[in-house]
Amino acid sequence: MLVNWHDPDHIYLVCGKTDMRKGIDGLAMVIAENYGLELYNNSLFLFCGGRNDRFKGLFWDGEGFIMLYKRFENGRLSWPRNSNEAKKLS
Fold first, then answer.
1. 59 contact partners, CB below 8 Å, separation of at least 6
2. pLDDT tens figures, 30-88
3. Model's pTM, two decimal places?
4. HEC readout, the chain
5. Contact 65, 53 (CB under 8 A)
6. I need a surface site. Which of 5, 14, 61, 74 has the fewest CB within 10 A?
């Protein structure tokens, strides 16, 4: 399997605490239902759990979704906690 990875046009931080047990379908539903953003327009969506030491990413590569997962062994993220928004990074 080859991954068709290229630079995303848009990067969004999904603010607040996300249930990290969610998979691709669950994370896609969070975006579609809560924020009304287009999932298939070359965007990367980043989600953080409550512990701030791990995050997930969701990206459409043109053929299917790629889910990324990162866990820090030493350190934590500083993540915005207002769960009503998805912030676009520039």
1. 5, 8, 43, 44, 45, 65, 66, 68
2. 999 988 888 998 899 999 988 888 999 999 888 889 999 999 888 887 888 776 778 88
3. 0.86
4. CCCCCCCCCEEEEECCCCCCCCCHHHHHHHHHHHHCCCCCCCEEEEEECCCCCEEEEEEECCCCEEEEEEECCCCCCCCCCCCCCEEEEC
5. no
6. 74
